[in-house]
Amino acid sequence: MQNQSASSIYTFFNGLGVATAYGMLGLSIWLAPVNLATKGFWLMGLFLLTLSLVNFVKYRMDARMSEDRISQIEQARTEKLLEDYVSEKDAA
Fold it and tell me: Cα–chain-centroid distance for residue 64?
């Protein structure tokens, strides 16, 4: 239970940091002395960067989960082989 609480606090703190960063960046773009087309271009770039980062993190998390699943399968197979070997030795 404590691990989940720590994870929730960590997630909230990071979410707050991201929201603050986006707020400050939005304010600086709003106050920048450039025309509206340039501001739109910057915001489009920011949106695409955010989308790319989310996809990158999802890809890495999926890859790690796949590696963990393969490791669990290999460990279960090894345990089954050892169990079969031990039971054959006991039978002999």
Answer: 10
Cα Rg, the chain, nearest whole Å: 25
Q: Which amino acid is at 51?
A: L
Q: Which two tokens stand for residue 79?
A: 């345990």
Contacts of 24 (CB under 8 A, 6+ apart): none
Note the maximum CA span of the chain. 87
Q: Is the pTM of this model over 0.70?
A: no
Q: What is the DSSP letter of 33?
A: S
Residue 69 has phi, psi (to 5 degrees) of -65, -45
DSSP 46: H
pLDDT in tens, the chain (92 residues): 566 777 888 889 988 999 999 999 999 999 999 999 999 999 999 999 999 999 999 999 999 999 999 999 999 999 988 888 888 777 66
